[in-house]
Amino acid sequence: MLLEIKSLDSGYGFLQVLWDISLSVDEGEFVALIGPNGAGKSTTLKTISGLLPPQGGEILFAGDSIGGMEGHLVCRKGVAFISEELNLFVNMTVKENLEMGAFTVEDSAKQKENLEFVYELFPRLYERENQYAGTLSGGERKMMAIGRGIMSSPRLMLVDEPSLGLAPMLTNEVFKSLRTLNKRGTTILLVEQNVGKTLKTSSRAYILEKGKIVLDGKSADLANDDHVRKIYLGH
Amino acid sequence: MASAAIEPTIDESAIDKVEQTIENTFVQKVVRWVFSAAGITICLTILIAIVASIHKGPYILVNTIITGGMWALMAIGLSLLFSVMNIAGFAHGEYFMAGSLTAYFVMQPIGKYTLDHPESFITYVGPLIAILAGTFMCAILGVITERLVFKQLRIRNREGWLLNCFLITIGLSVIMQNGHQLIFGADFKGILAYWDFPSVPILGVYISMDRVCAFFIAALTMVGFYMFMMFSTAGKTIRAVSQDEEGARMVGISVDAVHIMTFALSCGLAGLAGASLLFMFPSYPTVGVMPLYNSWFIIILVGFGNVAGSIPGGFMIALFQVLTRSYFGEGWEAVIPVLLISLILIFKPSGIFATKVRTVWDQ
Amino acid sequence: MASEHEYYVQKKGIAKFLDYLCLTPLGAIGFLILIIVPLFPPFNQDYLLRWFILAAIMGAGSMAFDFSAGYIAVVNFGFAAFVGLGAYTSAITAVRWGIPLPVAMLCGALASALLGLFTGAISLRMRGMFAICLTWFIGIALMGLAIKMVWLTRGMLGLQVPYFFPSDVSNLYYWYPVLGLSLMTWFILKRIARSHMGLAFKAIGQNMDAAKTSGINPTRYRIINFTVSCALAGWVGAFYAHFIGILTPDFLHTAKTVEFLVIAYIGGRGTLWGGFAVAFPFIWFTEMLRSNFDYLPGINLLIYGLILIVIMIFYAGGMAQFFQYLVDKYKDNPTVRWLTT
After folding, report:
1. What is the ipTM of this complex?
2. Which residues of chain B from 302 to 341 reach within 8 Å of chain A, CB to CB?
3. Total structural domains in chain C?
């Protein structure tokens, strides 16, 4: 198991959002976490990536406990987090942003390889290499954030709502790049609201409702599940 | 679906064309800059400086350039502190004071030694050692305050951070001023000159060696600071944290380490300014008030969080003060600037060099 | 002190009157103690009474300061200059035109209010930092003016100010007016804070963006608040001038602002009464340090700085927070409930 979460509780101060969450992601898998607004999907990712301290339970990454570890140390372990707000460095150029993404990678040959891969995956970023990140369009920002995540050669990538605010065409492109990334060997834990597309892309999925995991299984099975069809797919 | 995909491309190319027609030649760019708020003020400043120098004598230009560089250094430190940690440093003048005090104490034995051995190389290097000592002392002091005070607040209470930090810096300022008075007394602790050489004739004006050196120190530091921020990894991490703290943490930057570095840099710059200007401003408890005033003035003038703008801003403020002092007399330099700042706040509250890209500050 | 919930409980008789004055029974008892205490030894000595008066003036000033710092989160970093402007205006109008002192005091308040209105109008559109800087600059500029305009203020020599009462009377003559002044200040500020407008102030102080989205025009309310605070500052300053008898530009110094600020924040931000209560021990402590450690100049300020930092880090609510903690602890006790509501 690459990532294993055992009965995790988390939240903001007095407000507990996650109640006894357990999930696991194997090496090389593409796992999705779906659920309605306010279910605690983003909170889960924030807790794993160390931006939010857990209130109970355990988070194991490659066998080591990372629960309560500071964000930058979690990143050094090989977890990249692409947040909903993207958290780009708006006053830096695209290239500088990508370079900052490789902050934890000391090997410069590896850095270069990653950069080339990102440009190959998103040629648009190469075109805008010297443009400030603050001047990019919404879709480009998403690409930029994913690219920045790739730069640290993560073992596990946590992606939060990549389709948010994107046109359908761009959403497809982002999903395609995530699949390419997964084929290249990066494990992905994806949080999404676009359930149909997510279930088609991912191999396995968890369904989170009101801070609790209510269902899990193979994506194809879930897509045929009555509960999922009724509530999330609308047919 | 197809039309939706085509439309954006048409729009973007149209925009590109418009942009191209707007900024096609270098000359047009220059003209546009000159008529922007920044261009007008900078050109006007240079013009006024020249006219005043002809009218009142070249010392106006000399004083402006020397002190302006140092105020710019302090304002850079303040801007950095504000944009990285969101702290309004009202204790920065006290780091200026601490820098000049350290330089004074280091300079004492060096001065004695060079009096006996005027031919020794210490005559040339000694003052530099004193200035560096002042800089490092302040950097260390800055790190200590960060660990003892701001780190503690950060752990405990993030609500109302800006106001709490402002009040804490006031507390620090009061402590440092009165600590100085208690331990070292309230008298002036100054030196006659760092480099006791004959004055250098520049354009027919005799300028003391200290002033020349102060100018070069300021210029070199600014260039060095720019290089550090733009090209070194450490500088990039500082910029990253100032733009998005969470993002920095996500890419593996230790925000804590960046905070230490920022404080060291910011306070070190203030200490450097204080130490280099010891020959003009002898050290006493409240020597830092005026530099602090100037640097805040610069920050409002050029716009909050605009680190690069501090440099022209520093020279403008220096000129403004030199002018008020020579045309209105001592004591008015605190009164007249308020009128200017009021005008700026009324007509261009975001500062004359307001940046186009929004920073952490505006959010 | 009254929690919002219980405020709406119908009150009768003396409780109703106290409620109109915005005093809780405990506050009223405290006030009564202040009224009678100078009549008994050892507090009936003249120099002790002088401290009491100074403390009440500082306390009233810190209430005015806290009105903008605590409610709309705008720190007036030139507060002493606004106090001083009131003092100088009152003194100068009284000397030059010979108008009665109470009217001169109102002139002082008016001058401070006008300056506050101007300052607020140009700086309060932006974030609080601008107001801090501008008030600080204005404070320094006013001090510079007070030094420079010798023909008007006599500069560093100090301006002779007419006293309220003949100079040979006991300080007791000043004590009751100053208590009245403090009560008036408290009453005005608290009535505003309890009104509809006070609600807007609180909303702006907590979260300006949220306040904006609920239809409050933050700039307007901030300017109103700031002007009121400055006007009261001028009023308090005018009283100070006619009590102390001589005005020097030092009174406008930032160090004096820091004193008001420290008192208000030790007392507890946003409570108004906290600063007034803390002013008495604070002035006593200052005077004690000044008289016993005169070979250590500035030791009192050093200690204030330390206290300010420690409070900001560990106990941001100040003394009022501690008081509230005690009240909450014993809230089942009926006497405590009666005293504090």
Report:
1. 0.87
2. none
3. 1
